[in-house]
Amino acid sequence: MKKAFKTEIMLSPAQKQKVNQTIGTCRYVYNLYIKTAQSFYKETGKYLSGYDFSKWLNNVYTKEKDAWIKDVSSKAVKQAIMNGDRAFKNFFKGLANFPRFKKKKDQYVKAYFPKNNPTDLIVERHRIKVPTIGWVRFKEYGYIPTNLNVISCRISQCANRYYISVLFEVKQSTKSLMRYEGIGVDLGIKNLAVCSHNKVFLNINKTLKFKKIEKQLKRQQRKLSRRDEQNKKQKGGEFCTKNRQKQVIRLQKLHARLTNIRIEYIRYVVNELVRAKPAYITIEDLNTKGMMKNRYLAKSIKEQCFGYFKKWLIDKCNEYGIELRQVSRFYPSSKLCSNCGIKKVKLSLSERIFRCDHCQSEIERDFNASLNLKYATKYKVLTKVT
Asked: What range(s) does the Probable transposase IS891/IS1136/IS1341 domain occupy (predicted)?
């Protein structure tokens, strides 16, 4: 089994320059492959594989122009080409949209460094030896394990900070737990998750701390907009290029802070569900793409990060050997009465209390849905439980 650990690193000015050069070259090569593959397909009607493009890049392109591509790690450039090749294959299989060019401001590109020699990727308590970069210090000591087999690492940049993700090879061992009854989890907007074992996880986006950061974000965004308007009025170039770049970094840090808060909260919720030691966990197959078409709820749905919640829950259930069940998106979990099983045909979104017309029972709407999910008989198993 493979497992990755990610932490922040501290780089020297020379190392920052090398990492930025590597990331920029990988972005340039990725975009070059996307552009070349499109042109090749229009002219010949054939697909240009990443392997063929790599041979053309090394033997023809770098000799005629852009020889600076060879100044960085060849493995990082090769991995950028393979990422583009995988993006095209996923598009042809119908698993993803057509590959798009990567922008510098999005900071999605990562530099890949494999372990080529025994002296590469040596992990110590406070540092790691990265090929072509040298010894890199961790900001947090003791988080990256030192007694596991290292496969590779990736260095990324976000909001003027640098992170390293180290991939290890570990033994797969399912943790033994005493199993109790299952849990139904109803995801929503008012609360992130309402569980059948009387546990409610609130929406962290509505907390006072989160709203203060969002208010600060709006203020900094207006400040950046004023800088842009000021630059447009200047003749002979931009007036405050450096100050504008500083303002962009301030915005990136605020966005990264909000993202980190959401991710850590989702991990906390998933860990709490797993620590309850259930025999199984049942969730819904939410049509997030369709829900996002509602312009009044799109922002709230996006901030809940339902996709990341599902992904992290699958990983944790696989680790602990818990069966994760998923019911169909057409399963009427909110309209069924958890007491008698009669379906209520008309149930508006504003009705937060479920009142059954047959047995006259009253129950909170989301808690009723979690109970129906818990006792659902038709489902799909998402985890591999032995």
From this structure: 167-295
Question: Which tokens go with 275?
Answer: 């620590």
For 178-244, the DSSP string reads: --B--EEEEE-SSEEEEETTTEEEE-GGGSHHHHHHHHHHHHHHHHHHHHHHHHHH-SSS-S-HHHH
Q: What is the pLDDT of residue 306?
A: 92
Distance CA 240, CA 226 (A): 11
Cα separation, 79 vs 89, whole angstroms: 15
Residues 215 and 222: beta-carbon distance below 8 Å:
no
Q: How far apart are CA 371 and CA 5, in angstroms?
A: 36
Tens digit of each residue's pLDDT (9 = 90 or more) over 45-103:
899 999 999 999 998 898 888 889 989 999 999 999 999 999 999 999 998 999 999 99
Helices (H), the chain: 13-44, 50-56, 62-64, 74-92, 208-233, 241-275, 288-291, 298-304, 306-320, 365-374
Please report the pLDDT score of residue 246 as a whole number: 87
Q: CA neighbours within 13 Å on the CB side: how many for 20?
A: 12
SS3 278: strand
Cβ atoms of residues 160 and 304 within 8 Å: no
Q: What is the pTM of this model?
A: 0.84
Question: Among residues of the chain, what percentage have pLDDT more than 70?
Answer: 96
Q: Which residue ranges in the chain fall short of pLDDT 50?
A: none
Residue 312 burial class via C-beta count within 10 angstroms: exposed 0-12, middle 13-18, buried 19 and up: middle
CA-CA distance, 333 to 285, in Å (whole number)? 11
Helix (H, G, I), strand (E, B) or coil at 132: coil
